[in-house]
Design brief:
Layout: E1 3-4, H1 6-11, E2 17-20, H2 32-38, E3 45-46, H3 66-75, E4 84-87, H4 95-104, E5 112-115, H5 118-124, E6 150-151, H6 153-162, E7 167-169, H7 173-176, E8 196-197, H8 213-221, E9 232-234, H9 240-251, E10 259-260, H10 263-267
Parallel strand pairs: 1-5, 2-3, 2-4, 4-5, 6-10, 7-8, 7-9
Helix pairs in contact: 4-9, 8-9
Length: about 270
């Protein structure tokens, strides 16, 4: 149950930990934390994707080490046994990256969900909203890394000849084909050799909810490769790759999300 709907969350607000993981592309001139202060789902805790990523690297949104993750989640007041619902107010469905992080660091996948449609759908349905910041009591979170759920550049390079897994790119088709410049400076245009493209935006409805299972299956079937549990997703910086990963988990319940963490921010360096 990777996705939960707005009805379920409103009925269970007092039984779950709610996380606002809104993050926006730099060129949007939007600030997720400022927007969270103005309005959020009651009792939501803010997850800062930039601050909660690896610091000693020039690559965006890389996974932190286990001790850092324990500290981040403990300061959010979240326990290992907590059921968690993550949402966002972002056009790139950034909640999925937070979902992936929790699964990578060993949170029970049955206890971590994404709110289908996010804050946009929640607000459109006139559900309760708040600007009161929740109080948090530090916990003692203990993580376990699932290192098989992340790929590095060496593994991606080796796979070009060994073809042990398929790489699916969540960026737009124009970026994938190298027809437009990359939004981040210092990156060439193009894509990883032998990879495939399925833009994440094609899997999302106008109200930010995911397509239904049948339509998602049709979209994934347009990729001319044999998808299986070893499929790896990539994008610009590991955020929208997580959207594809969650979407694929909806049609293949054996799939655990696998991400090329560096994505094109690493692979496309000039």
């Amino acid at each position: 149950m990777s996705l939960i709907d707005t009805n379920w969350l409103e009925k269970n607000l007092s039984n779950v930990k709610v996380i606002d993981a809104s993050w926006h592309m730099p060129n949007t001139n939007r600030n997720g934390y400022e927007e969270y202060h103005k309005e959020h789902i009651p009792n939501a805790i803010f997850f800062d994707l930039d601050k909660n990523s690896k610091k000693k690297t020039d690559l965006p949104h890389m996974l932190v080490d286990k001790n850092s993750w324990n500290k981040i989640v403990s300061e959010m007041g979240i326990n290992n046994s907590d059921e968690i619902v993550v949402y966002d107010n972002s056009d790139i469905i950034s909640s999925c990256r937070c979902w992936y992080n929790f699964i990578y660091f060993g949170h029970n996948p049955n206890l971590i969900h994404v709110l289908d449609g996010g804050l946009k759908k929640w607000n459109n349905e006139d559900r309760p909203i708040s600007n009161t910041l929740s109080t948090k009591q530090n916990s003692n979170y203990k993580s376990i890394e699932n290192k098989e759920l992340v790929k590095n550049k060496k593994e991606i390079d080796e796979n070009i000849s060994t073809n042990k897994f398929n790489v699916i790119d969540a960026r737009s088709r124009e970026r994938f084909k190298g027809e437009v410049q990359e939004p981040r400076k210092g990156l060439r245009s193009g894509s990883i050799k032998n990879s495939f493209c399925l833009p994440f935006s094609e899997l999302i409805n106008e109200n930010h909810s995911f397509l239904d299972k049948e339509k998602l299956t049709e979209k994934f079937n347009t990729i001319k490769c044999n998808l299986d549990e070893n499929t790896v997703f990539s994008c610009g910086s590991g955020v929208t790759a997580s959207v594809l990963s969650l979407a694929y988990s909806l049609i293949n319940n054996r799939y655990m999300p696998k991400i090329y963490d560096g994505s094109w921010s690493e692979y496309g360096k000039k």
